[in-house]
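The pair is set out directly below:
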Amino acid sequence: MKINRISVESALASLKSSARGLDSAEAARRRAEYGENRLEKIEREPPWLRCLKQFTSFFAVILWVAAGIAFLAEWRGPGAGMALLGVAIVGVILINGMFSFWQEYRAERAIAALARLLPSYATALRDGIAVQLASEQLVPGDIVLLQEGDQISADCRVIESHGLRVNEATVTGEPAARDKDAREAAGDDLLASRNVVLAGTLAVAGSAQALVFATGMRTEFGRIAQLTQVTAVPLSPLQFEIVRLSRLVAALAALLGAAFFAFGLALGLPFWTNFIFAIGIIVANVPEGLLPTVTLALAMATQRMAKRNALIRHLPAVETLGSVTVICTDKTGTLTRNRMHVKRLYFADGACDYDAARFAAAPGYACRRLFEVARHCHALRTVVVDGDPQLVGDPMEITLLQMARALPGGELDYPRRDEIAFDSDRKRFSTLHDTPAGSVLYCKGALEAVLPLCAALEAPAGVTPLAAGDRERFRAAEAAFAHDGMRVLAFAYRTLAADVPRGQWETQLTLAGLIGLADPVRLEVPAAIRACHAAGIRVIMVTGDHPQTALAIAREIGLVQSVRPRVITGDELARLTDAQLQVALDEPEILFARVGANQKMVIVAALQRKNHIVAATGDGVNDAPALKRADIGIAMAISGTDVAKEAADMILLDDNFASIVAAIEEGRAVFDNIRKFLTYILTSNIPELVPYLAFALFRIPLPLTIMQILAVDLGTDMLPALALGAERSAPGGMARPPRPRSERLLSWPLLARAYLFLGALEATAAMAAFFFVLARGGWSYGEPLAASDPLYLAATAACFGAIVTMQVVNVFLCRHASRSAFDFGLLSNPLILWGVAFEAGLAAAIIYTPLGNEVFGTAPLDAVFWLFVLPFALAMLVAEEARKWVVRYRAARHQRP
């Protein structure tokens, strides 16, 4: 009979386990027998196939065609040097493809390594003690302790349940959570059984103990995984833009090549001369390093974000971060330190500051009842982590429990029999315990949720009826606590008779008092809020706390500065229509308090309808829908549940709001870096193109050979371009409005700067250098030069050397579109210096070594040439700095009132 159809005792016996769980030795033996509790890697494309695909990109196809034509030309007319050209183009394809594959593979491995920073854990009974261990270590027969927010790591038979509800959408496809209990099932279907929880599903409410009966690939989730192949991941906006740009540029290159080939034929150029001309046009316009540089920029951004405590789960999130316009943030743990301490108490006879020594000496009866509720009414559990017993759960509950245990009688822990789970609608949590006085229900939660359920009040003289005046006094006390920035909880209890139905447990309660807890603001948050405002990013607090508490914290961190900001409570939000909410969001300062997690999604959706790019934070189970709906879902690593982490795009390793701002800064840098790289490589296209136009139009010797173009694009330019793709975020990146999502990478201003300004300056220098060497050698216009003539070889080397020299200057100019190159420290990006050194060394090898001369068709140049080129490089530096100054001046004038 299946495990779901037998009793708890029989289920335990069938796996030779007990309510104490397995002993450590038996668990180790079973782990060796059954293997680790993890899914085998789902089949995907092998690395060799992914590597081959790098050689079939649109850029590569164009170059393959060019190489094929070159080899065909060599076959038709041997000795023209076309075979060497074909080999060179194939070499370009191989180098570019291998480099692209290496970068993609490296990025993939980096993301996988970062994901291992957040391993999945489970709590199991070993030797009768609750132990936290990696989920991979679970074996059949283990007893696991499940709690709200846990991701279930194995198929389990429930043996004890306290309001457990599980979302099984990952296995069954059904989004609604289902109740789970320990009763035997009537049928064999595990998926339909109330007493079975499956690996890969999520506990969304309550708690339970469950017996593991299947792990790894033997689970239902594992069987599904075996039948499922990885589907193609949809392209992100940036990836789509890169593909669009690649096809556009490659198609343009092919079109220009064909057009100029026809143009050359019309001018009467010899066929093979004209062919070389067309191939040169194509090669000059294909930015071979584009794809690997984009991959490098994204991969390095994720690495930098991880160092700043922001773990990216999905690579496309890197780009979206740069467009964020609104951050919807929680308060506790994100804006504050989540280090609660009890600050003030309120009883029937008034308020008092909490003093542990004073209450330990003379707690009083009313105080004892309040602390009794605080000691028992919690969802904490003690777990052994690395041999050290630790309380695991909500930091606020840990604070309350530690406070209660430090007082007389705090060592008494009455056995828990049942509980009624907390949720954002109830705003309270209750536990039922067996005490010497009988069954007692302890309840804590928001005052507005607990007070209506109370009929009596714990007073110094004894329990008295709760009068209307008492209710008003407690509400006023709560408001005063909240005004001082404290989180306020009400505590109540009730002795239950055996015949009271569960639905009436939380009635006729006795109010024991209030506790005000203070949570200090994170020191980094005020500066982070100012940075968001400077960056044009709106920050909206969305919290479940009292409105006055939220407002006090908002003022302390600088989020609210006006006298009367708009504060919307959850009840008010529920009454607003979509249109009314969107109008309310136009308020310059607004915050939401006492809202449920489901209402957070309503707020996110309203902001998105206003065309905002929304980042939302969350840590609870009920936050998952809002995290999924937001453009960037951000979960907390420390306080966040597994459910929230699974739904998020980014995880804050330190739960700190300031880390969000740091991640946005890095996200903006990625887009900027790709534009820097594009500007740099597109600039060199013009001095590579102009020599071919001059060759065709003015009947001069070809100033630059195809081999020399390849030497620039895949040799001297490559490392400096990659260094620009790896630039850190520049100062001032957070001092401008967010980038519109519709903004294109290849904008008209970028093209104008690269082609019409910087490119034109480089082309002027390249052609001047070519004619300078020819003139010094006595060449006259119209005089033919053989391809092997030393003067011609030196002249082409001069054109090549001038382009490289200008690109050395250009890499520093491209570090920012408007800031001066002198604003950046020389060592602020060491990769640029290494790139320039490599560029200069490779150029020297091409010009001054016999091998370089033979392969690339060059000849050594004397020192006079470099003195001739230097003024052109300085002129480009001065001209670009002047242009940037004009841009800055106009921007400053525009900002003046």
